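sry for the spam today, last one i promise. struct tokens for design, 61 residues
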């Protein structure tokens, strides 16, 4: 059966480093998998925000 160079490379990489997939999943969970948002806390955060001015560099206008 034909396997492309990339498929062969990935299979070889997985054989050399069996923990690769678990490490990738752990990294993904750090960056992308978030806890559910508490709607009450979110509403409180939005209510306590200070409104920004239209142009931040000149506060006197």
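last one done:
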């Amino acid at each position: 059966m034909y396997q492309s160079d990339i498929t062969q490379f990935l299979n070889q990489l997985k054989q050399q480093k069996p923990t690769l997939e678990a490490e990738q999943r752990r990294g993904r969970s750090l960056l992308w998998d978030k806890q559910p948002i508490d709607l009450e806390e979110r509403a409180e955060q939005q209510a306590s925000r200070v409104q920004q001015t239209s142009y931040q560099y000149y506060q006197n206008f």
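The first helix runs from residue 5 to 16. ok im logging off now
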